[in-house]
Amino acid sequence: MIRFLKIASGAAFVCALATAAYAHAFLDRAIPGVGATVSGAPAQLQLSFTQDIVAAFSSVQIAAVGGGAVPAGKPTLSAPNVLSVTLGHALRPGVYRVSWHVVSVDTHATSGSYQFTVAP
Amino acid sequence: MTIFQILALAAQAAEATPTPPADMGSMPSQPDGIITIFHVLVLSRWIHFAAVFVLFGSSFFWFYMGRERLLAGPGGLPKTLRATTLLLRVAAPVAAISGVAWLAGILANMTSGFSNLADPENWRLFFFETQFGPVSVLRLTLLAAAVVVTLLPWRNRAWFSALLHIGALLLISQAWLGHANEGGEGLYGAAMIIAYAIHALAAGAWVGGLPPLLFACVEQRHFGPEDARIWTIDVLTRYSWMAIVAVALIVASGIANAGFRVAGSFDKLFDTGYGDVLFTKIGVVALMLALASFNRFIAMPRLRAATLCGMKQINKLRISVAAELLLGILVLLVAAVLGITPPPQ
């Protein structure tokens, strides 16, 4: 029993030292930022997630609020947890909504959206 | 309470979590319908876990019970052997079917709909463009191998050894299809995989060993009272030594697994569905441990001291082992839900 308690407490100690890994990928930060106002049209979007993701089943769409979709390339991984999307043309001033759907390396799917503004 | 009511409660728990800021995103909403992707994932995972636990644990049983159990002579358990063989022959195809259903559920969840399963391109991407694709191919190969092995006419140690190893690989490879695969490459990711593998193997040995143990307790009814008492004590002693080691590993690796999931957000555990499911699992495992402790430290000593009333003690033990098995099956349902519930962020 004492040996068992030693093993259990050892495991607990190792875990306490460990940094938590987030199961399921959630949006950590984005460029342009969530709710941010930027001056000048961004050439690409970067979305960083709390976990490594699978590019093959991930997608990002961008559309002007009250307007049409903005053409964009297929998302690629610029880091294991970062999706980059090259925009098809320069964004005009206005509010844009980015919608994303990703699958994390633990097979779980998540999705969400956010807005940013391109200042005149 | 019906299975659908349990699943409805589980779905509520899973959807109640996590509670990240709205901009972080969320799990895709489940389309309306009698059977949702969540139901398919939970049911297929539950059945698959149970079937693979049988493949591994019920095969392993014959290695710590000693060679004489496979024979028809004194101490042999021919009826238990026949029942276990039949169980394994059922478990292999059930594991294969539920394993395929699990993969289909994963793909449907990734692509937000069952209709996307009909597109071969999605399957190509799944198997060849994802980190878990090669593992999925390996698992399908192992499941096919299990079915082929169970169709063979042998019932010897080599047969059990083949199923034991296939079952072990299936349990270990589950790590790449869930939360344990989130640690990435390197030491941290490897530690998560190892902790999961130890947990699954130890739990498989414990719960998967219960069906043949129950068969053996039933078979003792056909022995004389003294033989039944002696052989039951021997079988239970061997099983309980294995179970003591397994439980120690389950608890240690379970603490490690929980630490990996919630180390940075332990305070949020009590307000999330993940916490509810985790505490339910711990509660049911605690009940199993209480029953196992009763068998080991109260019922067995009583049986050792018993004389003519030995058969009555064996009957009580049989009921206790059956109850432990039912609780084990319930734990697998909770584990099936836990694995697809987002931990607190």
Q: Care to describe what's here?
A:
The complex is a heterodimer of chains A (120) and B (345). By secondary structure, chain A is mainly beta. Chain A contains 1 helix and 9 strands, in the order H-E-E-E-E-E-E-E-E-E. Chain A has one domain (22-119): Immunoglobulin-like, CATH 2.60.40.1220. The longest helix of chain A is centred in the N-terminal third of the chain and has 16 residues, at 2-17. Chain B has one domain (35-338). Chain B has 11 helices and no strands. The model of chain B has no long low-confidence stretch (mean pLDDT 86). Chains A and B meet through helix 1, strand 4, strand 8 and strand 9 of A and helix 3, helix 7 and helix 9 of B.
Element layout with pairings:
The complex is a heterodimer of chains A (120) and B (345).
Chain A: H1 2-17, E1 27-31, E2 37-39, E3 44-49, E4 53-64, E5 69-70, E6 76-79, E7 82-86, E8 94-104, E9 109-119
Parallel strand pairs in A: 2-9
Antiparallel strand pairs in A: 1-3, 3-7, 4-5, 4-8, 6-7, 8-9
Chain B: H1 3-15, H2 37-64, H3 78-111, H4 120-128, H5 133-151, H6 157-173, H7 187-208, H8 210-219, H9 225-262, H10 273-305, H11 310-338
Main location (chain B): membrane
Keywords (chain B): Cell membrane, Membrane, Transmembrane, Transmembrane helix
Organism (chain B): Methylocapsa palsarum
